[in-house]
Design a protein that fits this description.
- The complex is a heterodimer.
- Chain A has four helices and no strands.
- Chain A is mostly helical.
- In chain B, helix 3 packs parallel to helix 4 and helix 7 crosses helix 10.
- Chain B folds into three domains: about 110 residues, OB fold (Dihydrolipoamide Acetyltransferase, E2P) (Beta Barrel); about 60 residues, E3-binding domain (Dihydrolipoamide Transferase, Irregular), CATH 4.10.320.10; about 220 residues, Chloramphenicol acetyltransferase-like domain (Chloramphenicol Acetyltransferase), CATH 3.30.559.
- Chains A and B meet through helix 3 of A and helix 6 and helix 8 of B.
Chain lengths: ~80, ~400
């Protein structure tokens, strides 16, 4: 899966969690949490959504590596490379 | 013959609008089944029936807004003969005492989501999606749902509307946000006017909980992982067993503790406002079960598909301003409840343990109590018990 495909998968999952948000305005280098007002339940649903979309198992210790859109793409690409 | 009335879904509700009937005259209904969707100022609610029988007559058509207590339908109970019913217009709307909503809404048996989604003759769609579909001229029966259990979501409706060749007429958007603000204003003003609040707080060392959770979550799949918020909810429920006077209501000048513990969780809605639906029997659910119920509840609260028993039955409210927020919250009690527990965000701070200063994750737990029902001394002991329970997370 290319990074572009990963990026659109991440945006798709975010769209389910924050359906009212305009994701084209999301700044890729800034924290998603503040931009979309994500709480702990949203964060958990995000990880579950990524698990379903990309069939990846994300350990809890790695949640911090999903802070920005760019971080997510890099981290998920590295998981796939393994 | 039973009169099915417009229920009081929360202390701040005075009237509701029937959005849709899921049953028609002649249909059999079972206790706990959802028979109608009702729009209140705060949310669209799936209303459960508490009688098993056959619907004799529907008296209020979809689109009608009627006061709480108005007879919506007549249900012939099982095993009883049909009788001539008085003309519907002559059945007066019996006002439900505003102070006693919890006592007039009997608790129906919970209905599993999956069972309902597959129910014959009913398209699984959230009330919000149904309403949007109506506005946009989309027939929900023709859609394939992408939501949980094949439910039709707002997105599905929007997608379908975009493919319609005729441009839908611009429907006036009912200002839900403004009405929710008004509903919150009414109940909170009533609370501050009537309830003499006292406030106590306790700092809780969360290191044991967090260490236990890290271990526990390693063993759990992504979908089964626990949030510490669920651990806090369970601890509150267990502490309430020791302090029953904090769990329940103040009605007609005296305390009315509840035998069951249904913790209401304040859930903020995207787009503003909040709801605080109940997690039924919080004290009897395992952490895994509680996590599942909690996830489901948050999802449905945000999708606008709460059930009548969830909005009318919390026996206490827990509010947490989340990990982005502040360190302590002193909440306003939701009448006629008599207590509210608040949790601030978890912070790392210096803490003295065994004579040493160490960095520990701490949470400030607060209790807002109704001084008519309890005293600050008992409130303080409750928070001490809560702290004690959180030091043994493996026992929760």
């Amino acid at each position: 899966m290319s990074k572009e495909e990963i990026r659109s998968a991440v945006l798709r999952v975010l769209g389910q969690i924050a359906p009212e948000a305009d994701l084209s305005q999301l700044k890729p280098g800034q924290r998603i949490r503040e931009q979309l007002d994500i709480d702990s339940m949203d964060a958990l649903n995000f990880v579950i959504g990524l698990h379903k979309e990309l069939q990846v198992e994300i350990p809890e210790a790695d949640y911090g590596k999903l802070a920005t859109l760019n971080d997510c793409v890099e981290y998920l690409a590295s998981l796939q490379a393994k | 013959m039973t009169e099915f009335r417009m229920p009081q879904l929360g202390a701040d509700m005075t009237a509701g609008k029937v959005i849709v009937w899921h049953k028609k005259a002649g249909d059999r209904v079972e206790r706990g089944q959802i028979i109608a969707d009702v729009e209140t100022d705060k949310a669209d609610i799936e209303v459960e029936v508490f009688t098993t029988g056959v619907i004799e007559k529907i008296l209020v058509e979809p689109g009608q807004r009627v006061p709480v207590g108005t007879v919506l339908a007549i249900i012939r109970e099982e095993g009883k003969p049909s009788a001539a019913v008085a003309p519907s217009e002559e059945i007066p709307a019996a006002p439900v005492p505003a102070a006693a909503p919890k006592l007039v809404v009997p608790r129906p048996a919970p209905v599993p989501v999956a069972a309902r989604a597959g129910e014959a003759g009913r398209v699984a769609a959230s009330p919000a999606a149904r309403k949007l579909a109506e506005e946009l001229g989309v027939d929900v029966a023709t859609l394939t749902g992408t939501g949980p259990g094949g439910r039709i979501t707002l997105e599905d409706v929007q997608r379908a509307a975009q493919t319609l060749t005729t441009a839908p007429a611009a429907a006036p958007e009912p200002d839900r946000a403004a009405r929710m603000r008004q509903a919150i204003a009414t109940s909170m003003a009533r609370s501050k006017r009537e309830i003499p609040h006292y406030y106590v707080s306790q700092t809780v060392d969360m290191s044991r909980v967090m260490a236990w959770l890290t271990e526990e979550n390693l063993r759990r799949s992504v979908e089964e992982r626990l949030l510490y918020g669920v651990v806090l909810l369970k601890a509150v429920a267990l502490a309430l067993r020791e302090f029953p006077e904090l769990n329940g209501f103040w009605i007609e000048g005296k305390g009315a503790p509840s035998a069951d513990i249904h913790v209401g969780v304040a859930i903020s809605l995207r787009g503003g406002g909040l709801v605080a639906p109940a997690l039924h029997h919080t004290d009897r659910q395992s952490l895994g079960e509680l996590m599942k119920s909690f996830r489901d509840l948050v999802q449905r609260a945000r999708a606008g598909t709460l059930r009548s028993s969830e909005v009318s039955e919390p026996t206490i409210t827990v509010t947490s301003l989340g990990d982005q927020g502040v360190e302590a919250v002193f909440g306003i009690i939701y009448p006629p409840q008599v207590a509210l527990v608040g949790f601030g965000k978890m912070v790392k701070r210096p803490w003295v343990a065994d004579g040493q200063i160490v960095a520990r994750p701490l949470i400030t737990a607060t209790l807002s109590g109704d001084h008519r029902a309890t005293d600050g001394h008992r409130g303080g002991l409750f928070l001490t018990a809560l702290d004690r329970l959180l030091q043994q997370p493996e026992k929760l």
